[in-house]
Amino acid sequence: MTLATLLQALEGQVKILDRRGNLNVSINSITDDSRSVSTDSLFVAVKGERVDGHEFIPAAVRGGMVALVSQQPVSGVSLPFARVDDSRKALGLLGSRFYGHPSSHIRMIGVTGTNGKTTTTYVCKTLLEALGRPVGLIGTVVYQIGERTIPATHTTPGSLELQQLLATMVADRCTTAVMEVSSHALAQDRTSGCEYDVAVFSNLTQDHLDFHKTMEEYFQAKLRLFTGLQRGQKANKRAIINVDDPYGSRIVERSPAPVWTYALKTKADLRAEAVRLSLHGTTFTAATPVGSFSIESHLVGEHNVYNLLAAIGVALHEGATPAQICEAVARIMNVPGRFERVIAGQPFTVAVDYAHTEDALVRLLMAAQAVKTGRIITVFGCGGDRDRGKRPKMGEAAVRYSDVVILTSDNPRTEDPLSILEQVEVGVIETLRQRPHVRYKKVPDRREAIEEAVREAQSADMVLIAGKGHEDYQIIGTKKIHFDDREVARNAIERLGTRV
């Protein structure tokens, strides 16, 4: 493929400010990483959060690149060159063209929101597979293409990796891609070059303000998934939006595509009625645009009712029948790291969950409150080098809905773990004034904290280990070390002799 052909993908979306050299040069690979440059590569220089790709143009020249796309003026480079006004956005568009516009050959389901993305995408995948469709999955836990599972590098991968994954799905005859779409990815144009068929909004609560700075900026990033539905040539598009969340109504007003709303508390196109929650699962009547039908699910908690409604909306739009939906939902036992039970013969419940924001922690604990038979013992921490504003709020939430709270480390990264815990403790101490019976302690070592919770637990109690879920590592300083909450909890149960 020639550089001239690739540049055609930018028309109408990215301005080309300058072109030089032989634009008919043949391009056999495209990259934004100078270390990946090889003979016949197009190098796209992108300014990142920490690294500016323009500084690595000389390294890319040495690596054998044959053409360059840059956002900044470049001197001393005699190779074919194009300067654009937004090289980050251009990267996705060029990648889409290079890999044959894969999103135009596959149904694209995008799910965004602060919480619930992973569960919703897993349920969507299961429901769409009930239609006989081969479905690819891109999300926080893994990327799945047919029988292949690829470890996830990001919730939403980089522009070129995303286009390559989609192209592989098309080549493997997948007819649908279900993917989590993060606010970072939207703000950084990682999804440029993708045309979505269905966009889902779950909720918006405080998170990532270290990156977005304000909630409005965070919301505007999410909104881009929905306003982007107006682009492209595909028909039969739809937005599926939670209108129990106040931001949902704003998206409804801005969506260029037809909308189905969903809710538990307000009027909506999809509603859950007669909801019954238990430790073993959830039942409700789904009132939908095609009629009402009964849902029985192994997923626990009201927050999963929302996730199920969103996925049901996707499945109905994609042609599933109520019978197919009911049968597929009943087969889903759990989602990795989302209220994932650890069962080792103990007389109490232990569950691991990814909840790492105030809202997610509240949803988890309220779900536990609705089904508990004993005390709730909560183990959690807050990540280092991330949004500090949520730390006291998470401490407040834990005390408000727990009986015992154990504060511990959760990927402290380059911050002092004790300093992080002190910030969480501000919310803990404030809330203890209203709930003085709640006991809490600080145990910075996460392994010791989990062992302390298991030691504390009695028959019928519920131990909730929050923050990491499916993750099997801790990041301490700049090093990633193996650490799996599920393994640690199981070992603690067995070692402490807490079996029945």
Walk me through what this model shows.
The protein contains 16 helices and 24 strands. The model has no long low-confidence stretch (mean pLDDT 94). The protein is globular, with a radius of gyration of 24 Å. Helix 3 packs parallel to helix 5, helix 4 (117-129) packs across helix 10 (302-317) and helix 13 (391-401) packs across helix 14 (417-432). The protein is of the alpha/beta class and 500 residues long. The strands form four sheets. An eleven-stranded mixed sheet has the order 9-8-7-10-6-11-12-13-14-15-16, sandwiched between helices. It has a six-stranded mixed sheet with strand order 17-18-22-19-20-21, with helices on both faces. A five-stranded mixed sheet has the order 1-5-4-3-2, covered by helices on one side. The chain has three domains: 3-98, Udp-n-acetylmuramoylalanyl-d-glutamate--2,6- Diaminopimelate Ligase, Chain: A, domain 1 (3-Layer(aba) Sandwich); 102-331, 3-Layer(aba) Sandwich (UDP-N-acetylmuramoyl-L-alanine:D-glutamate ligase); 340-496, Protein-Tyrosine Phosphatase, Chain A, CATH 3.90.190.
